[in-house]
Amino acid sequence: MHPDLLALQLRLQHQFSDPGLLQRAVTHRSFSADHNERLEFLGDSVLSLAVASLLYQRLSAQPEGDLSRVRANMVKQETLHQLALGLQVALVLRLGEGEARSGGHQRPSILADAVEALIGAVYLDAGYGPAEALVHRLFAAVEINPQMQAADKDAKTALQEWLQGRKMKLPSYRVVATDGAAHRQTFDVECLIPELALTERGSGASRRAGEQAAAAAMLATLKAKKL
Questions:
Q1: Do 117 and 221 share a domain, yes or no?
Q2: Domain with 92 in it: what CATH number?
Q3: Domain of 182?
Q4: Does the annotation count 113 as an active-site position?
Q5: Is 132 tagged catalytic?
Q6: What are the percentages of helix, strand and coil residues in the chain, rounded to 5?
């Protein structure tokens, strides 16, 4: 294994049984077909569950809606970007030549996605327990308090709370198309609410941004329909 990846293992406090997972987690789609987007997809779900369990323990007096809002603050791109900087992920990112020239090593969306991919890689390598422990270590220095609930709600959180308030299932998101060169892609994302038979789309420079745009479009539709 490359010395930089060995150093990243030490920062993660996890030794990979399958080093290939670690390498894939830091590989952008502009570098290779064997990139980290599937790991990112998996890590996003593991991260959400691990943060939810952390908040359940730490904020035992808070209701569900407040916990959802605090979690949204913790798993947003800005927070994950800061975690990536702490892990020095930029040192090991594998980017295509064009993406590297355009500043990809410092791009918050790429670094945040790599953190999710690393969490997904640990999950595949060793199971949920070690992945949850990694998430808890990463967030050990992040302040967690009920005041976080006062932060502005993003579109995904606002939509989730709207549905929860009506006892409906959470929406599903899926990438339906990607356009553009590897280092300047646009992600077209679909947001679906099965119980209302409603579908909306949004696009952004990352999967996360596309999901936010799709959620915002769905909220606008719900408002227009006065639901």
A1: no
A2: 1.10.1520.10
A3: 152-227
A4: no
A5: no
A6: 65, 10, 25
